[in-house]
Amino acid sequence: MNKITIIGGGNLGKSIISGLGNSDLFEAKHITVVDKSEHNLTEVKEKLGVSTSQHIIEAISDVKWVILCVQPRQLDAVLEEIKEELIADQILISTVTGTSIAEINEVVPKNKVIRVMPNTGASKKLSMTCISANEDVKEELVFVQKMFDTIGKTLIIEERLMQAATVLGASGIAFFLRFLRAMIQGGIQMGFHPHEAQIIAVQTAMGAATLVAKNGTHPEREIDKVTTPQGCTIEGLNEMEHQGLSSSVIKGVMASYEKINTIK
Ligand SMILES: NC(=O)C1=CN([C@@H]2O[C@H](COP(=O)(O)OP(=O)(O)OC[C@H]3O[C@@H](n4cnc5c(N)ncnc54)[C@H](OP(=O)(O)O)[C@@H]3O)[C@@H](O)[C@H]2O)C=CC1
Ligand SMILES: O=C(O)[C@@H]1CCC=N1
Fold first, then answer.
1. SS3 state at 73
2. Domain identity same for 94 and 33
3. Which SUPFAM superfamilies match (predicted)?
4. Among the bound ligands, the one closest to the CA of 117
5. Is residue 67 classed as helix, strand or coil in its secondary structure?
6. More exposed terminus of the chain, fewer Cβ within 10 Å: N or C?
7. Do 37 and 72 have their domain in common?
8. 136 and 10 co-located in one domain
9. For residue 226, what are the contacts with CB-CB under 8 A and spacing of at least 6?
10. 208 with 253, same domain?
11. Is the ipTM of this complex over 0.95?
């Protein structure tokens, strides 16, 4: 029987569960969420009908898959708690930022570990999930990819790129949303009510991303289709570049990447 336990029902855990709970890979009753917070557990139980527990050992006792979804500083305590209880054919799936497969295997050497880096788009089945595993984890990798395919798009990557994947794909949600907020603020300054500016900016962002996704074109090709010579678009774009838009985004991405290498 395919059962899964998620340790940590916080921001990301909830997003994954709400996606997985609606997939046909697991029945809701075979998904268990463990969290310290009663409030988080009540929320996932009521909204998604999954099982919940505050006891890690009890919750992992007869499951094949265990997703680790706690903050990096909380991981050591969780691994220490479960290490004697895990049996060898249980598979650990870690979403934890900055901790390598080898570091997890130092504590739990018998278990196969797969690293995944989803994002909060998972709750709307729009996650981008990068996945990596060691060479000897083939069959399980296929299933885990299938699992995350149910909540968005997946890409198998080398583990050395996991930190970059975290910045681009997971933190990326926040980066795009900050740009979206700025567009909304511009819309309000031009005269729209905030909710109107939000409708326009959100739909436009979805249109822009979908053009690139469906046409397979480079963003600049789609930009060329919008920029009328001597028109208002190129005027706005050039001013944004004079103010350092591309440069500040790339610098922000690199600052995030430098920080991630210090997280533990
Ligand atoms: N949020 C995101 O968009 C993304 C996050 N990640 C990574 O995923 C992981 C989870 O992030 P996120 O969901 O944001 O973090 P949260 O803090 O929102 O969630 C973690 C949850 O785990 C609970 N928890 C911690 N220790 C235990 C324990 N021993 N037993 C039971 N429950 C426990 C926490 O409870 P309490 O608060 O009481 O400690 C909290 O509710 C992190 O490693 C993060 O770096 C990766 C990609 C995207
Ligand atoms: O901010 C963080 O450190 C985590 C990793 C990616 C999203 N949240």
1. helix
2. yes
3. 6-phosphogluconate dehydrogenase C-terminal domain-like, NAD(P)-binding Rossmann-fold domains
4. 1
5. strand
6. N
7. yes
8. yes
9. 233
10. yes
11. yes
